[in-house]
Amino acid sequence: MRYDLIDLKLFLDILDAGSITRGAERSHLALASASARLKGLEESLGTPLFERQRHGVSPTPAGHALAHHARAVTHQLELMADELGDFASGLRARVRLLGNTAALAEHLPGVLGDFLLAHPQIDLDIEERPSHAIVEALSRGQADLGVLADNTDLAALEARPLRIDRLLLVTRLDDASLDDGQPLHFEQLLDRAFIGLGRDNPLQQHIAGKALEAGRHLELRLRVSDFDAVLNLVARGVGIALVPEATLYRARDRHALRALPLADAWATRQLHLCARRFDALTPPAARLAEALLGS
């Protein structure tokens, strides 16, 4: 039996995207062409690879088995491409990196930009996910590397410390109502109105979850798309917010704000760079890991 590498790449793109439509887009194929290729692959194997569901697809047991072998094949091809790079200057490599909100918004943009400038033949596929979802994706081989917080079980992965990420309370500069010199706990804030990020934002979900653990709902006056908008509204007195310390440092010259640390242990997080196995990374992914850890 012979396998088309385009079909294998399409299969992995559909698996990673959870959708035939989005998988076709990742493979730069028309939906009709992608559907026909997937059908042909399933017919050649004699078994379905995906269960079609209302909002996407999920792999069958045969799909899980094929994913293991297809990733091994693409891994070997990337190794070959790297070793032959001096002879094939047109070859490109792609590294898939997942990160939580703080990592992608504040800690990584600069080093990722420097890495891309230094490695013009390597492209990055970056996606924001909650830490627990990053663990799951890495364990399934759906990404090369992940940056996530240590409040998640990392036992299935290899992890290396990367950054300390602190969440700070920010209020309007002239709001001293919470600044009494005593340790400040998150539960004390739950009678106040917050400015937050979008409903699907991993950090916002994390903060809302901590409110639920305290038996309360987070009162949000407004959801906005990015930290700059959050800080702008806080500075105007619309509400309070929790933001990464790096966010506040970056915006210190643009917004007049009061920042207070939280005494809750969960508000100070160790970010880790994770992989299933660092010694099994493709050479491009290993180069990215080295750049991140050395930054």
From TrEMBL:
Residues 1-60 form the HTH lysR-type domain. GO terms for cellular component: cytosol. InterPro entries: HTH-type_LysR_regulators (IPR050950), LysR_HTH_N (IPR000847), LysR_subst-bd (IPR005119), WH-like_DNA-bd_sf (IPR036388), WH_DNA-bd_sf (IPR036390). It comes from the Bacteria. The keyword Transcription applies. Pfam families: HTH_1, LysR_substrate. The keyword Cell wall biogenesis/degradation does not apply. One of its GO terms (molecular function) is DNA binding. Keywords: DNA-binding, Transcription, Transcription regulation. Gene3D superfamilies: 3.40.190.290, Winged helix-like DNA-binding domain superfamily/Winged helix DNA-binding domain (1.10.10.10). PANTHER family: HTH-TYPE TRANSCRIPTIONAL REGULATOR YBHD (PTHR30419), LYSR FAMILY TRANSCRIPTIONAL REGULATOR (PTHR30419:SF2). Belongs to the LysR transcriptional regulatory family. This is LysR family transcriptional regulator. It comes from Pseudomonas tohonis.
